[in-house]
Structure formats: structure tokens, C-alpha cells
Amino acid sequence: MSGDLIKLKERLKKEITESRYEHSMGVAYTAANLAMKYGLNIEKALIAGLLHDCAKSMEPKKMLQLCEKNHVEVFEVERKNPGLLHAKAGAILAKEKYDIHDTEILDAITWHTTGKPNMTLLEMIVFVADYIEPHRYKAMNLTEIRKEAYEDINKATLHILKDTIKYLEAGKGEIDKMTYNTYQYYNNL
Ligand SMILES: [Fe+2]
Ligand SMILES: [Fe+2]
Questions:
Q1: Distance CA 156, CA 129 (A)
Q2: Distance 39 CA to ligand 2 centre (A)
Q3: pLDDT per residue over 13-37, tens digit each?
Q4: Domains in the chain, start-ordered, CATH in brackets?
Q5: What's the 92 CA to ligand 2 centre distance in angstroms?
Q6: What is the reported pTM?
Q7: pLDDT at residue 88, as a whole number
Q8: CA distance 58 to 70
Q9: Per-residue pLDDT at 76
Q10: How far away, in angstroms, is 102 Cα from ligand 1 center?
Q11: Biggest alpha carbon distance in the chain?
Q12: Burial of 19 (0-12, 13-18, 19+ CB in 10 A)
């Protein structure tokens, strides 16, 4: 790991809870693994994974303010539940606080929760890594999805979206319209 990455880790550690930090490390290494498998830049995958939840400990109101200040589009569902904004706020924080200016990395952070239609490989890798990293254990079909991630990343992405929508529709959270859009896109591939 390069010196820059070690510094990033140290800074991040002070900003988020210990369990969130462990999760972030899990996402970083899982994303790096997937980058090896699919021939992507490993360092970009590590950085995106490491920072994807960097705004998670921010107060919801502050996330909303940060997004508005930076003219990032905020949807109605996000305005009602600013907790959903940690991905968009995270991309802003990654730029302003962690000095990451690579738009591919920032976009991967922005879309890590809902995904979006026609994701780049890096976006997809972070989206999938967030769901399958080794500390995760609650989601259904994890064994199968972990296997799919290394066989066919589109298939793993669709499977995650399908299961996430099923889970949220069972009343365990509000669904971002973007999650449906992403599901439609990958279901029609
Ligand atoms: Fe997240
Ligand atoms: Fe996460």
C-alpha cells in the first residue's frame, strides 16, 4: 500500500466508527480483488472502497447542506431521509477533505448505494464490494452473490438490486427511485 493510502486510512479512522472503518477496509480489499479479476486499476478501487462511507458519521442535516452548497441534485426521498445522502456527501468530502480529484473514484462513491444505469466497471465493483465484503453476513443469498461477483459482475449487480428491493419493499426502508432505475436497466441487459 502506498504512503498516500496509509495516510488516507489514518485520517479516515478518526472520522468514522470502528465497525464502519472495518467495513470500509473490507470494501477496499474486496474492490481491489475484483479490480484484479476484471483488469482495473487496483489503487483506484482501494481508494474508492476505503472512502465510500466517509460521510457516514456526518449529521443528516449537514449532509443536506453540503450537497446543496455544492449544487448536487437532491431527490425528494433523500430530502425526507438525508441518511440516504451519505454517498453523494461522501463524494464531496472525498474531494474536499481527502483531496481525491479522480472523477472515476468520486463517481464510484456517489453511486455506491443505489447504483445507476450503465455503471462503469469501477462503479459496479464498489457497489458489489459494499454488499459482499467479508464482514457482511445478514443479507440473503450472500454465498451465491459472492460467487457471481467473480463470475459475472452484471449478474451479481442485478442479484443485489433484486434482493435489496425485495428487502426494502418488505418495509425495512425507503427505496430511492434510482435503485428501481438501476434494477430496470440491469434486468433488461
Ligand atoms: Fe454506504
Ligand atoms: Fe458501505
A1: 10
A2: 23
A3: 999 999 999 999 999 999 999 999 9
A4: 3-187 (1.10.3210.10)
A5: 16
A6: 0.96
A7: 97
A8: 16
A9: 86
A10: 19
A11: 45
A12: exposed
